[in-house]
Specification:
Bound molecules: S-adenosylmethionine
Number of domains: 2
Distance between the termini: 8 Å
Largest sheet: 6 strands, mixed
Strand content: 15-25%
Low-confidence stretches: none
CATH architecture of the largest domain: 3-Layer(aba) Sandwich
Order of helices and strands: EHEHEHEHEEHHEEEEHHHH
Helix content: 25-40%
CATH class of the largest domain: Alpha Beta
Number of strands: 10
Length: 325
Amino acid sequence: MPNNLTFIDFCSGIGAGRLGLQNLGLNCLAFSEIDKNAEETYRKFFGAEEQNFGDLMKINTKELPNFDMMIAGFPCQSFSINGQRKGMKDERGQIIYGLIKIMKDKNLKYFILENVKGLVNHEGGESLRIILDELDKAGYKVFYKVLNSLNYGVPQMRERIYFVGVRKNLVKKNKEFFWPEPIKTPNIKTYLMDKEKLEFDKDHKSYNTFIKYLNNKYNKNKHEIEKILEKDGVVIDTRQSDLRLYDGCVPTLRTGRHGIMYVRDNKFRKLSGFESLLLQGFPQEIAKKAKGQIIDSHLLSQAGNAMTVSTIQSVGQSLLNFISN
Ligand SMILES: C[S@@+](CC[C@H](N)C(=O)[O-])C[C@H]1O[C@@H](n2cnc3c(N)ncnc32)[C@H](O)[C@@H]1O
């Protein structure tokens, strides 16, 4: 198993992808991230000494060390159904070209890329077609699939498209690529376990707004507060005029939406930044390094942007299986 591979973590965010690959024994040489807040959290997790190459569009590739593999969850706004759907014409859509330039300049062997599911149908599938075309022209055999993190080790519904690339001259004849098999979703109660006092009750400024919301014309008679409070562990998401309850999992964590709540001991609680890291597969001992050090709203946003550690680990394992003898 070629697990002495080196990689660089592009569009690193807080390094969930890095952690997934490190769990497989791969060695991270550096990262590239332009968001200072994400970098601060990244350094809490991985250390102050790590080298950040900054804006990947401006990297002089001669300055990069040699490495085998790229991981990049390239920005999703331009492709996301939540964004403006400008796609390849939006400047952020062009990040893929910056990544491909690095692949070519460094003659990289492998990559794992991640994006939102909305990329599949964006502009009638044109954006995806362009990306696949460009990666093919760059010399890579590419496998892609939408996977849900719920099936890969965390109780979070999170559908993302994953691309696994292998330089064509390294692809063995007649070798098949297998995506990871789904595994049983773990129990959510071990994730919603923050001990801090995060109860959401009358003492909370926005509590009355929430109660009014429960009684507005859309939700009236649909939900009774007492009934909801009896369901220990139920997750509550409020979206525009809609209120949804989830049993056994949380909906997709998103960078701009922090309103997820759940019930514990007959009380409403707000999902904390620490819990959102756990729901992205960060182990407690690593998530604790940010807890109380980075403000919660930043952690919630950063977790919403992140990959899922365990999903990347599973996808990385599929790649390792494919390239092993
Ligand atoms: C969808 S997030 C990916 C987060 C990451 N995969 C994680 O697990 O936390 C995209 C990240 O790309 C970063 N980014 C955007 N443009 C960039 C650029 N030109 N160079 C480096 N990073 C960039 C953003 O700041 C953001 O943190």
